[in-house]
Amino acid sequence: MWLECSRLLQGPFRGSWAQKLHQDGPGRGLGEEDIRKAREARIRKTPRPQLSDRSRERKVPASRISRLANFGEEAEEIRAGEITSKGGTEKKRPGQPCQVEDNSFISPQLQHIFERVRQSADFMPRWQMLRVLEEELGRDWQAKMASLEEVPFAAASIGQVHQGVLRDGTEVAVKIQYPGVAQSIQSDVQNLLAVLKMSMALPEGLFAEQSLQALQREMAWECDYRREAACAQNFRQLLAGDPFFRVPAVIQELCTTRVLGMELAGGVPLDQCQGLSQEVRNQVTLLDFGASREFGTEFTDHYIEVVMAAANGDRDQVLQKSRDLKFLTGFETKAFSDAHVEAVMILGEPFATQGPYDFGAGDNARRVQGLIPVLLQHRLRPPPEETYALHRKLAGAFLACARLRAHIACRDLFQDTYHRYWASRQA
């Protein structure tokens, strides 16, 4: 919940919340010796990510027609059912379950689209990149910097990141947004929905349009780099002095709606961290605050009670608090209600387990996957809008812990958080 619950961090817990997670001694996650080692560990130069060999310089399409063309090839493949599995020449039918490790419920066709987008990592040509810099920072933008690498070291769906050096020698990462991205979000989401509809029969209980509307709002937030800079500064203040987490500083003179400059931070992919020393793994840099959001107490008051009910093993309370949260209407079938409660109980196991919970040993994702058909068939209303973002982030956190085979005393941390939350609400 690090990147999601900024309202909680600002309100009930203030700046002490992050530190308290680590400073309550043994039984609260990490002991005093772990904290001492983390504070004394030397800052090491870590490899910086680089674009793959497949990356190439290409003008970024800005119009709806050109973007639709990018979806067109995938749509034709999906209609024909000609997506070939990576393991051989087997043809997969539309809607056939995708076997991707243990956390994916996505069809193979949609997985193929996302994988192609992730791997392509094309970047803007020099003239297009310079045009954005001039439009955002002015024609004298070079006076602010000693150097800027022309080829980015990272590229994603809405922008690319270049390494640079300020006049005072500070190394920075400069994120530059692709032209036309913010203006085309609505049409892009509509295109994605069209591809989904033509590729498979979407169950009514999926509420795909509501989900994509939430995605559209988050994409709009991510395109506002001034908003992201403000969120990053907020978290940097909240985590100041924390021995484990670090948020790079925002470079204000390089911050506009479409350009964001921050201190450069090294890193390696998560799945390459297992061989690193504990001292290094105890130091985490947080990046990318574009989708950060606040949650109102009308949501968090009920949500935290759902989690507490699961932590206490109280199935009846899970059902009632889910209704209070407006996750359920109260008129669902018994089969749906039972499946919903079971899913919550499975996902609540880390908070119900006494002592450290072993994320690497569980099969929670597969167990929840078995409940998905019932949940999609019988759901009567879309879940609260807030849960789309929150559950996506929590799923990512659970998966990260599983990949790292982390052992975390989640129950102790949650119980402490729960009591401090309500103490602050009643103050």
From TrEMBL:
<comment type="pathway">
    <text>Cofactor biosynthesis; ubiquinone biosynthesis.</text>
</comment>
<keyword id="KW-0808">Transferase</keyword>
<protein>
    <submittedName>
        <fullName>Atypical kinase COQ8B</fullName>
    </submittedName>
</protein>
<keyword id="KW-0067">ATP-binding</keyword>
<dbReference type="InterPro" id="IPR034646">
    <property type="entry name" value="ADCK3_dom"/>
</dbReference>
<dbReference type="GO" id="GO:0005524">
    <property type="term" value="F:ATP binding"/>
</dbReference>
<feature type="domain" description="ABC1 atypical kinase-like">
    <location>
        <begin position="117"/>
        <end position="279"/>
    </location>
</feature>
<comment type="similarity">
    <text>Belongs to the protein kinase superfamily. ADCK protein kinase family.</text>
</comment>
<dbReference type="Pfam" id="PF03109">
    <property type="entry name" value="ABC1"/>
</dbReference>
<dbReference type="GO" id="GO:0016301">
    <property type="term" value="F:kinase activity"/>
</dbReference>
<keyword id="KW-0418">Kinase</keyword>
<feature type="region of interest" description="Disordered">
    <location>
        <begin position="17"/>
        <end position="97"/>
    </location>
</feature>
<dbReference type="InterPro" id="IPR011009">
    <property type="entry name" value="Kinase-like_dom_sf"/>
</dbReference>
<dbReference type="GO" id="GO:0006744">
    <property type="term" value="P:ubiquinone biosynthetic process"/>
</dbReference>
<dbReference type="InterPro" id="IPR051409">
    <property type="entry name" value="Atypical_kinase_ADCK"/>
</dbReference>
<feature type="compositionally biased region" description="Basic and acidic residues">
    <location>
        <begin position="51"/>
        <end position="60"/>
    </location>
</feature>
<feature type="compositionally biased region" description="Basic and acidic residues">
    <location>
        <begin position="21"/>
        <end position="43"/>
    </location>
</feature>
<keyword id="KW-0547">Nucleotide-binding</keyword>
<dbReference type="InterPro" id="IPR004147">
    <property type="entry name" value="ABC1_dom"/>
</dbReference>
